[in-house]
Amino acid sequence: MKLVIALLATAAVATTAFAADNVQKLPSGVIVEQIKQGTGPQPTVNDVVRVNYRGTLANGTEFDSSAKHGGAATFPLGRVIPCWTQGLQTMKVGGKAKLTCPAATAYGDRAVGPIPPNSDLTFEVELLGIQQ
Prior knowledge:
CATH architecture: Roll
Shape: globular
Number of strands: 7
Number of domains: 1
Distance between the termini: 57 Å
Strand content: 25-35%
CATH class: Alpha Beta
CATH topology: Chitinase A, domain 3
Helix content: 10-25%
Largest sheet: 7 strands, antiparallel
Structural class: alpha+beta
Radius of gyration: 17 Å
């Protein structure tokens, strides 16, 4: 019985540690939750990345996705909102993450399309590849 309790306690601690390792809060306030760990290289700010993504407002309303534009998006990582620049650099190719972006790391006090000013945003991003 003691062995079973010890194994359950060890499993609970390991699960908690694993879950904590999957969530990182960056100094800017961006929260990166690794949904699926990638195994490839990590991009730098100077790279061009290819991603699938889905963006939602705090209330869950989808405002954009790569699927709406016909598939994966490719862009220079240094030329997007700070949340993406920072968050994607924590990922490896093949990985998928949820980025929680405070308004200051997204579009700030600007309204952009269906995104109201001062909006916190959430993105699910799958890093498909890196081009130099």
